[in-house]
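Quick one: structure tokens for this chain, please?
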Amino acid sequence: MRTNSSKQTHVWTHGYNYGNPTNRMWKLLTGELGDFEGLVPKDSPIESQNRLPSDLGIGLTDVALVPGSDASELSLRVMLSWRASLYARLRDHVRRVSDANYGGPKICAFTGKKQFTSLFESPPSKVIPFGRLPDDVPLPPGWPFEDRSQVQVWVLPSSSGRAAMTHEQRFTPYKQLAEEVARLRSLR
């Protein structure tokens, strides 16, 4: 895996997930790419992302906490080696927010199909759609949130320009996720 390019280490030097200026994630989260009501307010600068858990109940993490951004350069063996660490971080998060009377997470979303399917020893034979994962698509072995009625699993398109798709194909699942988050917030 190459980790020395400035694009791949940008997040490590600036401290923000998806912080490279060429990455579309922040525009997808704010709804700017697609002109919809995003998960975060449109006027939010990327620097506000470290306040998202306390301000909006949204947390960001990666499958692995290492420099590098090109998933195509990572083997299944390497991705699987990070599964236990990801699950441990997710379980720790649940303990933290439950202890703080926030309740557990309602949604866990992956950006990129490879990031989700890499949690399986052999990827599911069923086609993984973008959006909310249908109940007939299996969850990865050891998945920490097995009750789908409690925690929805979403698979979103990559925000990277390397992922070839139209703007509409890219933003539509993010718009659907933002609508679902708004719906869940209205139930509180």
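Strands lie at 107-111, 131-132, 152-156.
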